[in-house]
Amino acid sequence: MIKKCVFGLCLTVITCFLVSCESGQPRAAANVLKAVKGTNEEKIGTTSGSGIGAVAGSTAANLKTLPIPDPKIIMARQEVPILCYHQIRDYRPGDSKSARDYIVPTAIFRDQMKALADSGFTTILPEQLYGYLVAGQPLPEKPVMISFDDGCDEQFPVTNEILEPLNFKAAFFIMTVSVNRPNFMTSEQIRELANKGHSIGLHTWDHHNVKKYTGDDWVKQVEKPKLQLEKITGRPIQFFAYPFGLWNEAAVPELKLRGLIGAFQLSTSRDPASPLHTIRRIIVTGSWTGPQLVKRMSAGFSK
Length: 303
Hints:
Mean pLDDT: 85
Structural class: alpha/beta
Distance between the termini: 38 Å
Number of strands: 10
Helix content: 25-40%
Radius of gyration: 18 Å
Number of helices: 12
């Protein structure tokens, strides 16, 4: 489903971005990222949404008015299962073992989503999760959040073909260096997802580890990409996913300063002092059947 590689990016680029949610040591990606870096400036102005998208945007705009309680109150709330996906496509002969760990074949993804629906799960978005965590706003009886990292282009059609027939919504964390590049979503596709009521979040400019940021890195990796996504969607960008799932205490005030009210990491426990900026996700693999996903998900987020 994903388009054929262009100008030599091929599988190397794809494999590089597949590890964006990896909870272990980040892989060196600087040389590969040079192939997709460039001017890549977004020149499309803001747009106004309608229907579901407009409601989602309005809700996001009101989130900052909610008073934040003591972190202990947030930590006491039941965790919501949050799934992290990267590429949804069939395996290829050249895919390495490490690459396959972050690829979910389309038929398997369809089976996983059907299993969630058959088990009575209802998808929620980061905006709803935030309202629940800080204000105790009600959620569906069996909530789950589906998230995608990087902005790979096949995420767009599988959303239309698999998620929407189930009335499922998802959160997309976009790495903006790749917007409008081969194998990644266009600005128009990102805008359409937002207009349809999906959530758009930030995944930095070019996937550098936030634990290594100094000085102007925060402007380059967060401030400018955040503005770019806000111009594309016409909505505030308030949620962030850490590259490689890695974070540190120094990152939290920097994200808050730039209007990012929630951030998602991986695997490790939430930080008791900063639970809103260390929300936990799990990576879904293509080796899990639908029922196996439901079982692993339920066990991994039970208290």
